[in-house]
């Protein structure tokens, strides 16, 4: 156990040294590549304006999303009406989708309880 801890500590030290040497270069390169998205001057007013624009743009996109959801539900209803014509692939996709929703629900419950499986703080 002590050897594994020593190895892990050594790797963490190497990673820290690598980041301290190359992190600044990566940061500058990233900013240079994405400079068209940077607002100058970066004032509080500009940040507030951008956050409001994002919020209201997302709010305005809700009707389009609702329309897409209605189309998806209509497709599912059509599949349900024609169950006889249902292919194994479609049933498999539906089963995987249901399983994914269940898994995300379980993960959300675990996160909501503070990453405990029993619900009690230990």
From TrEMBL:
Keyword DNA-binding listed: no
Predominant location category: mitochondrion
Keyword Disulfide bond: no
GO cellular component, one term: proton-transporting ATP synthase complex
Protein location: Mitochondrion membrane
Name of a matching Pfam family: ATP-synt_G
PANTHER family noted in UniProt: ATP SYNTHASE SUBUNIT
Family stated for the protein in its record: Belongs to the ATPase g subunit family.
Name of this chain's protein: Mitochondrial ATP synthase subunit G protein
Source organism: Pisum sativum
């Amino acid at each position: 156990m002590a050897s594994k801890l020593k190895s892990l500590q050594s790797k963490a030290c190497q990673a820290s040294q690598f980041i301290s040497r190359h992190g600044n270069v990566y940061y500058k390169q990233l900013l240079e590549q994405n400079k068209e998205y940077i607002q100058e001057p970066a004032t509080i007013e500009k940040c507030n304006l951008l956050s409001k624009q994002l919020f209201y743009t997302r709010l305005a996109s809700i009707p389009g999303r609702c329309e897409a959801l209605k189309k998806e539900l209509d497709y599912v209803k059509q599949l349900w009406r024609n169950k006889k014509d249902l292919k194994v692939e479609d049933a498999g996709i539906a089963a995987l989708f249901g399983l994914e929703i269940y898994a995300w629900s379980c993960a959300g419950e675990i996160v909501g309880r503070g990453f405990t499986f029993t619900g009690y703080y230990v």
